[in-house]
Every structure is written in structure tokens, then in C-alpha cells.
Specification:
Length: 240
């Protein structure tokens, strides 16, 4: 058995406000989080939670990961954009051209996300959260495929994508060139080791796949901090 993707974590100085935004947009319920933040619980086949966790890490540039939300029609896309703006999002320019059909927004903390136009065949079988779109190498796509046991559903021109065998969003990596990483990522994965498994053995397996264990002085009650082959932080959770 492999680890499971437990949550996508977003560091924020305002966990409650950010959780209210994403809860309102996605229609997910919220719950108290053991990390003193707020957890959003999926009501569909997404398969992972969203954790809004307290953090004073400054924003250091564009995130390496963002949500792509799907649309069933142009009217549906417009309604999603309008709802997001009403909840506190704003339009942003990250270099997209007017001809591109997706709408680029930022949540109240400045985290980018896209509302994809209808008819996108790549996300046709996915739900409202169609993808976690990541800046990353082909190597890191292979790493996460092996780490989570999710098959590759795209592997062309150094672009990769994986998806859980149970459905839900795809996770995609766009290949080179990679954007600079001046500091810690504001978004990261929490993964849960196999139930009734040996966490240290799982950490050793992840290291054999290309992960690096962070300074052990950073270990805390929440889990073991690690980085993937591209240097992105993730956490192997402490069994609860």
C-alpha cells in the first residue's frame, strides 16, 4: 500500500476568512483543524481535504500550485466567476492572452486559481475541481505517481498528469522552464502513510523515490516535513 493524499494545505494569516471563501465557492463544509486552522471537507469525489493553516510566511511570488475549476457552459463559467468575486476574489493578470478562454482570479489571500471554459476535453471527466495545476518537472510527476500509486494519465513533451484510480481531480505538472522558488511554498500536500503501516518505512520508500527529509528539528506533532525532487515541501502526517 502507498500513502494517500490527505489534504492540500494553504498557509495564511487569516485561516477563517480564507476557509469561508473556499467553502462558499466549493460548497464544502468546514471543521476545526488540529493545526489551529480550518479544514474544508469535500462533498464530492475530490478525495482530499483543504486545510487553511495559520502561517506568517510572506508571499514571495506566484504559487507553484493552483486550482483549475471546471464549467459546464459559458453561463456556468460566468456564474462561478461572479460568485468568486462576490466572495472576495479579484481578477489578476499573470500573462494570459485575451484569446484564452479561462478566467484567472486570486482568492482573498492572493492565491491564483482559474475558472476553465466549457468544452475542455482534458478535464471532461473531472468534477468542479478539475485539476491541481502545478509548476514542475517530468521527474516530479513520476515521483508523485509512484508515491501515491496514481497512474499517469498524461506524459508528453515533459508535461505529466496523474489521477487517482477512484476519480477526482487530476494533478498536472507543466514541465520546463520552471519558475524560481525564492521561499517556502504557500501550498503543500499532506500525505497520510498507509493505515497500520510503518511510517518510517514509508518515509524510507519516499526517499528512495527521490524525496528528501527535512531537518529533523522541524518535526512536530503534525508530521514529518519533506521535499519532493523539485524542492516542494510536503508533510507525512503523524497517524491519528
Amino acid at each position: 500500500m502507498t500513502s494517500q493524499l490527505f489534504a492540500v494545505c494553504i498557509g495564511t494569516s487569516r485561516p477563517l476568512r480564507l476557509a469561508r471563501f473556499w467553502s462558499g465557492l466549493l460548497g464544502w463544509e468546514t471543521a476545526d483543524d488540529p493545526g489551529a486552522g480550518v479544514t474544508l471537507l469535500p462533498c464530492d469525489d475530490t478525495g482530499f481535504r483543504i486545510r487553511c493553516l495559520p502561517s506568517e510566511e510572506p508571499r514571495t511570488g506566484q504559487n507553484r500550485m493552483h486550482f483549475d475549476l471546471t464549467s459546464t457552459s459559458l453561463d456556468d463559467q460566468r456564474q462561478t466567476v461572479a460568485k468568486a468575486l462576490d466572495l472576495g476574489a479579484q481578477h489578476i493578470d499573470i500573462g494570459q492572452s485575451p484569446e484564452e478562454g479561462h478566467v484567472v482570479l486570486a482568492d482573498p489571500d492572493g492565491n491564483e486559481f482559474c475558472v476553465i471554459q466549457p468544452g475542455n476535453r482534458f478535464l471532461a471527466e473531472c468534477g468542479f475541481i478539475g485539476a491541481l495545476a502545478c509548476d514542475g518537472s517530468q521527474e516530479v510527476g513520476y515521483f508523485w505517481s509512484a508515491a501515491l500509486g496514481w497512474p499517469l494519465v498524461w506524459d508528453q513533451n515533459e508535461e505529466t498528469a496523474i489521477r487517482s484510480p477512484h476519480g477526482g481531480p487530476k494533478i498536472t505538472w507543466g514541465g520546463p522552464p520552471l519558475m524560481p522558488k525564492p521561499g517556502r511554498n504557500r501550498l503543500h500536500f499532506d500525505i497520510a502513510p498507509p493505515a497500520n503501516g510503518d511510517r518510517e518505512a514509508e518515509i524510507d520508500r519516499l526517499i528512495s523515490l527521490g524525496a528528501t527529509r527535512a531537518d529533523t528539528s522541524q518535526d512536530d506533532a503534525d508530521g514529518i516535513p519533506m521535499t519532493d525532487p523539485d524542492g516542494n515541501e510536503f508533510c507525512v502526517l503523524t497517524p491519528r
